[in-house]
Structures
1.
Amino acid sequence: MSKDNIGSSMEDFLEEEGVLEESRRQAIKEVVAWRLAQAMKEKNISKSRLAVLLQTSRTQVDRLLDPENDVTLGSLQRAASMLGLRVTIDLV
């Protein structure tokens, strides 16, 4: 191991590899999907029930909960609202 790497952070490494922003985007999508799934468990709401509440299909709910998919902010807000959550965005 070279001394150049001592003390560097994961963020520094990802930036050097050119994947920092994509890694951040993916992490955010995974946390959002996880939090929605947790809220569904806490409230005992199935995917089918959430689809009915959102007036959409079960397939669309699957897409919403899959971090590999891109979903709109509006879709996230509607789902969060049905689960008693709200979406907030901070620009820093």
2.
Amino acid sequence: MIGLLQRVRRAHVEIAGDSVGAIAEGLLVLVGVERGDSTVEADRLLTRLLNYRVFADADDKMNRSLREVAGGLLLVPQFTLPADTRKGNRPGFSPAAPPAEGERLFAYLLSQAQALHPQVAAGRFGADMQVHLINNGPVTFWLQVKGA
């Protein structure tokens, strides 16, 4: 499972002009589900997202986590993240989980996040979304969680 996280001042997702999820300061995370992923990878990714130290401490060092700053978490499903881009001029999507499995695991990740963190919003699986953000830094990290 892949999480492309961006530290943001604020972010929101629109579908057909309607805002479906928004946060103030926190993390916007584009989520890609890979073939073979399970709830184990979703749980590991969520643990990392909540505890990844990307927010500044008093010395302006990245030493504080999303939990510590009580920031928002905006999860956005993005099936293109697992794409195979190693060759050619067109991405291959065989590494991505089938749509039904991707949707199931994204829903699981979202429900777990909502149970563990007070400020969680999300985009909608399979929708044509417009994602708006102000990246703070910019700070962007690629987290990839593989099976045991």
3.
Amino acid sequence: MKFSRVYIFCILLFLLLVFISEYRMPKHFRWEPTFSHNDKQPFGCYVFDSVLSTSLSQGYTVNSQTLYQLRNLKEPHGILLIAHEMPELTKTDVKSVLMLAEKGHRLLLVTESCGQTLEDTLRCHSYNKGTTMPLVQYVKKGFGRDTIQWLADERYDSREYRFYPQLLNSELNPDSRSCRLLSASGCQKTDSDTIYSRIKAVSFTIGKGSITWACTPLIFTNFGILDGSNHEYIFRLLSELGGLPVIRTEAYLPAVQTAEQTPLRFIISQRPLRWALYLTVLVILISMLFGFRRRQRVIPVVEAPQNHLLEFVQLIGTLYFQRRDSRNELLQQSNKYKKIWKKTTKKESLSPTSQNE
């Protein structure tokens, strides 16, 4: 019993050490951009969507409807689309974008590339001129940040925001006569005018609505919304949606990135279900530990041996009776009595009284 207690104590101590080591182990982050609503990694949108759902009082939802399906919206909405690079849009999708804007919807396209067809329609193209060094390595070496300047307009004053270059890989080359410049990461002032280079966000007025294009999708992620005070830059771009109810669509993300989670991942992602799983595993382990104890077997009842001498005598008597061999029995009895008589006479002859006589 003492050995069992020591064994159980060692098992519990081992499990406790494993739990502490796993809890204190540094988190392993994946830096691949997914922009998925369920992704809690730096370049996912789980935290981003949570912040916007609580900050935008007019409403914020995430779905997988395409631009063609969103044309059925009756009331004006703000439509947010975040993707690393949008696939080449069909003519139907491009017509849907223009129709949504003409009806009064406000679109915010946050992507490095909108596809050749839509770029030609908006007369604005993007170019990728980012750094090739990974973000983690760049930060470890202590390199500085680049600056994005919000251009002054009737609502906001001019202000600078500092981001890592890996988040600013692309820049826009629009026809300035057909759009309104919102932000840029470089400007040169001359005597007559200010020349902006590396434009990051522009806005087009179409019909009753507008289309805003920002080529910095990595900023609209969990990492970007938690990067110091840079969330203010995100909300300035979101203000282009005009205070309308916002719908973010994931229809143009790769299928691998928008795949549903496995049941186990869903259970772990929900706090009540996660603790229910932990308690279930703990109960199973405790039951296994108690099952290791040695169990006392049932002692069987041992009956005392019975005296079968009487049955044996009856069996022998019955045997002689059936054989009717009384002569053999009489001889045995006579021999027996002879032996007894001889022993008795011998003892009498050796006694002192007989010698005196």
4.
Amino acid sequence: MTTMERAASISEVRALYSPQERLRRDQTVWTLVQGILAPLQFVVFLISLALVVRFFYSGEGFELATWSVLAKTSLLYLIMITGAIWEKVVFGQYLFAPAFFWEDVVSMLVIALHSLYLWVWWQGQWPERLQLGLALAAYASYVVNAGQFLLKLRQARLQGANT
């Protein structure tokens, strides 16, 4: 695909940001906050995933794996709150702005699974493997959601390069 064809196909898709939204996005501190929290959460996710998988293979390290899931979940809550503030500043609503509707829908599943994990952990009645199995399900949904946001970031960069 040539550069002209790519530009034409991108312009056929609704622009992710209006000029005013792009300006608000570029001027708000919440963009920087999201830019710091997202990779931080991903690093904590990778460490936690390794600890959870280690537990499944060796049967050791349940407490450390649990604390890592709690750290990952805490970062998720923080990024969800600050992301909602970012969305309000940029698009005028806290969640489900048209440009990020499906990302927000999947984010609700991610937060629900992580919250269910917290409840299960707090109750302490599930066996260790089931608890961390739930964490893995929450992590799988997180990977899907992170992929959605990476695609949106790419779309924004492509559209920004063509404006």
